[in-house]
UniProtKB/TrEMBL annotation:
Pfam families: Rhomboid (PF01694). It comes from the Bacteria. The keyword Glycoprotein does not apply. InterPro entries: Peptidase_S54_rhomboid_dom (IPR022764), Rhomboid-like_sf (IPR035952). This is Rhomboid family intramembrane serine protease. Keywords: Hydrolase, Membrane, Protease, Transmembrane, Transmembrane helix. GO terms for molecular function: peptidase activity. It is found in: Membrane. The chain crosses the membrane at residues 46-64, 112-138, 150-167, 179-197, 203-222. One of its GO terms (biological process) is proteolysis. It is a multi-pass membrane protein. Residues 87-223 form the Peptidase S54 rhomboid domain.
């Protein structure tokens, strides 16, 4: 990476795809170029793809919980076992798709659908990259700091990460539309952020806290292009994307 450049330029999949398209004289999926019908069609495809992906993910969660119920909830042991290397680390991979019963899953369903969909509307590649960052940070942080002898699982870590990603990305990128979306999300779901504090028995506040931190990290990393462009504008030069 070059000196002074934001990390986002290297890790933003949608930005990379747009640049590759531009080198061929077109930018597939770009909402900022082409005719109005082209932009409308790209926007419609984005909404459809985001809806199908998040609906498919929720269907996967319900399928896994169904199997877990038939298996007498033994799958729950694949969650995160803090600081246990023997099998415990695998929980970082599996914990977000496991739940401690139907009530747990049903309680997570609407936030997963809404916030996951909005995160994917930032761009499918970008939304998936943000989800990967949140998934890893939330899992690793929980594994390092969770209580001994506990098992942590549930998609709420992703919910908290998507929430802070949506709130922070517009601010980091100074994008008015994204700031508005972030403010709406904050008004509707901001009360969830109290869940990052310890005190409720049976609630993985560590997963919530590190999920939220992962969302902030994703918002920073994936807004690197905008931050670099802003620095270049202040310096009076045109930034050249890599």
């Amino acid at each position: 990476m070059t000196d002074g450049a934001g990390l986002g330029a290297s890790f933003d999949p949608d930005r990379i795809a747009a640049l590759r398209g531009a080198t061929k004289g077109k930018a597939p999926g770009s909402l900022g170029s082409g005719s109005h019908p082209d932009r409308f069609g790209a926007l419609r495809r984005l909404w459809l793809q985001a809806g199908v992906l998040i609906a498919g993910f929720v269907a996967l969660l319900y399928g896994i919980e169904g199997v877990d119920t038939l298996d007498d909830h033994r799958l729950d042991q694949a969650g995160i076992h803090p600081r246990q290397a023997d099998g415990g680390l695998w929980g970082i991979l599996f914990a977000p798709v496991l739940h401690g019963g139907w009530d747990h899953l049903i309680g997570n369903t609407l936030p997963v659908l809404v916030l996951g969909f909005l995160a994917l509307l930032a761009g499918i590649g970008r939304g998936l990259a943000a989800t990967a960052i949140i998934w890893i940070v939330a899992g690793a942080g929980t594994w390092l700091t969770g209580g001994s002898g506990t098992v942590h699982l549930g998609a709420s870590a992703l919910v908290f990460g998507w929430l802070t990603f949506l709130i922070s990305r517009g601010w980091f990128g100074r994008h008015v539309g994204q700031i508005v979306v972030g403010l709406v999300v904050l008004v509707v779901y901001g009360s969830l952020l109290w869940g990052v504090l310890p005190g409720q028995n049976g609630i993985s506040w560590q997963g919530h806290l590190f999920g939220a931190m992962g969302g902030l990290l994703a918002g920073w990393v994936l807004s690197g292009d905008e931050r670099r462009q802003r620095r270049a504008d202040r310096a009076g030069v045109v930034a050249s994307p890599r």
